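As a representative case, the lines below give one protein's residues and C-alpha cells.
***
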Amino acid sequence: MWLLAGCGALVMAIVADLDAHRDLASARGHMANQRNPPIRLAAPALSAEEKRKLAMRVKAVNAHIRVLNLRWDEIFRALRPEPHNDVRLLALETGAGTGDTAGTTLHISAEASGAESMTGYAAYLAQQPRLHNVTLVRHEAGREAGAAPGSIRFRVEALWIDSL
C-alpha cells in the first residue's frame, strides 16, 4: 500500500513539475514580449490630394536623379563642335521634365561665326547616334557684350538617349 501511495505521490510531483516548467516558459515568453514588444509601423493615412502631391514629388526627384546619372563625358563628346566648324558652346541645360520620355532634353546655347556654321553644327548634332529630334529653336545676331562681330547666337534642343 505504501508503494502505491508513493507511486501516486511521485506521479503527482512529476505532473506538478511539468506544469511549473510550462508556466515558467510561458512567463518567460510573456516577459520577452513585454521587454521587446513587436513594432508595428503604420503609414499615416493620406488623402487623395496628398497622395497625388507625393507621387508628383517622387516623380520629380526620380527625374533629377536620372539627370545626375547621365553619362556626361559622352554628352560633352557628342556636343563638341568639329574642328573646322567655327562654333563656340556657351551653355548646356537639361530639361529634367517629368520622366515620361525615354531620354533627357538638352538645351544647347552656342555662338557661330555665321549662318553656315550654325546650320552645320545643328546638322552635325543630328548625326550623333544618341541625339534625337535635334531642332534649331532660336537664333539672333550676337549683339551681347563678348559676342564676336557678325556672329550668331543660337539655341538647339535635342533629346539625349542614354542607352542605345
About this structure: The domain at 71-160 is CATH 3.30.70.60 (Alpha-Beta Plaits). The beta strands are 87-95, 104-112, 131-141, 152-160.
